[in-house]
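Final report, Chapter 2: Outcomes

The project's central promise was a pipeline that accepts a single protein chain and returns its three-dimensional structure in a standardized token representation, suitable for archiving and comparison. That pipeline is now operational. To close this chapter, we reproduce one record exactly as it appears in the project archive, with the input sequence first and the structure output second.
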Amino acid sequence: MLEIKRLNAGYGDVQILWDIDLKVQPKSITALIGSNGAGKTTLLRSIFGTLKPYSGDIVFEGTPITELPYTVRSTVQITMIPEGRQLFGGLSVENNLLMGAYSRKDRNGIKRDLAWVYAIFPRLRDRRKQTSGTLSGGEAQMCAIGRGLMADPKFLMIDELSLGLAPLAVEELLGVLTEIQSEKGLTILMVDQDVQTALEISSTGYVLVNGRIEMTGDSKTLLKDPEIQKAYLGL
């Protein structure tokens, strides 16, 4: 579904990514792992279109999208759930969810998807009139995921799903995420510093080190790799 070829990107004169090659298969979960500052968020922003790469190609469903602005990329059903959730704290939960559907014109589809989001996240339905700034961390992440789903994406990117959340909240979110992926046939690219979680839920993993892809392969194989265990799992 997504193919990245020799991508170089950064901010001004500071290059962060170097010759990135990456492929994401349709209807799969792919993990991008690495330490803080490795360039994971920079890569997601390049795919989403909020950061213009220096060079390289990004191809989505066979169509080059490197030059497309992010406002157009959202219409081809690429959605990103940013690190830190970035909800509109003064808006209600329901209005935050509806913001995810701002570019859609199918009112019946929006109503259907809102009901679906409430079905998979019942706590959001219970809190739909509350301002999002009053939610717990886990509930806020549910709202951020729900807002992303309201865009009706084919390709969903999640930046730091587990950041700042209790283990039980992470476990609940991962269960919902795998259910959504299976039910809707979504393609998901997830970034998480919780390397074990990311590799357990995904089928393919990429390891980003200092802006370069150093390892790639089957996630279960990477999880057993001595270098991964030493560098990221403390084993």
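Archive annotation: The chain has two domains: 1-77+156-169+187-235, 83-152.
This record, like all others produced under the grant, will remain available to the consortium after the project formally closes.
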